[in-house]
Design a protein that fits this description.
The chain has 156 residues and is α+β, with helices and mostly antiparallel strands. The protein folds into two domains: 62 residues; 69 residues, no CATH class. Helix content is 36%, strand content 15%. The strands form two sheets. A three-stranded antiparallel β-sheet has the order 3-4-5, with helices on one face. Strands 1-2 form a two-stranded antiparallel sheet. Strand 1 and strand 2 form a beta hairpin. Helix 1 runs antiparallel to helix 2 and helix 2 crosses helix 3.
Length: 156
């Protein structure tokens, strides 16, 4: 039995992985990992595919001779685009009062590309270090009151 990041890979899933790699041999390793995640329903808490864990699994399977991945492709390094500040993150009037006066306050997981772009824009504009591309597994949260976003939290 193979276990990767706490997930037990069943025999049927292993066969599905082998079939996916064989069928989509012209895709890049990243694209194969994305496809395997979609087929297995392997997602993070925020709903994104668990691509890093899947890549490690694919490498382990290749090392054991169970699959043969396509060769790595030459590609330029990804350059982290800095978010551009727009009106949607412009300075607002300060939220004043006690927690009991502004409640309910909740944490909301950032799930889609539009929310991620907004989150990154807030970090770029207000964090003292600016925006930096997170690496590895990470989760983004908005802290919200009924009226507005109060803050952002990133765990990486």
């Amino acid at each position: 039995m193979i276990v990767q990041c706490g997930r037990r890979i069943k025999t049927e899933e292993l066969e599905q992985i082998r079939e996916t790699v064989k069928t989509f041999h012209r895709l890049s390793q990243s694209e194969i990992a994305q496809t395997v995640c979609e087929h297995l329903g392997w997602h993070t808490a925020s709903g994104a595919n668990t691509v890093d864990a899947c890549r490690k699994l694919l490498k382990r399977l290749e090392a054991k001779g169970l699959i043969s991945l396509p060769g790595k492709r030459d590609c330029p390094l990804r350059i982290c685009k800095q978010p551009v500040a727009t009106n949607r993150t412009r300075p607002q009037e300060p939220v004043v009062g006690t927690l009991s006066e502004i409640k309910p306050v909740r944490l909301r997981v950032v799930k889609d590309k539009e929310e991620t772009a907004l989150f990154n824009e807030y970090l770029s504009r207000y964090h003292n270090l600016g925006y930096k591309q997170p690496f590895g597994c990470h989760l983004r949260y908005f802290m919200e009151s009924a009226e507005t976003i109060l803050g952002c939290m990133l765990f990486s």
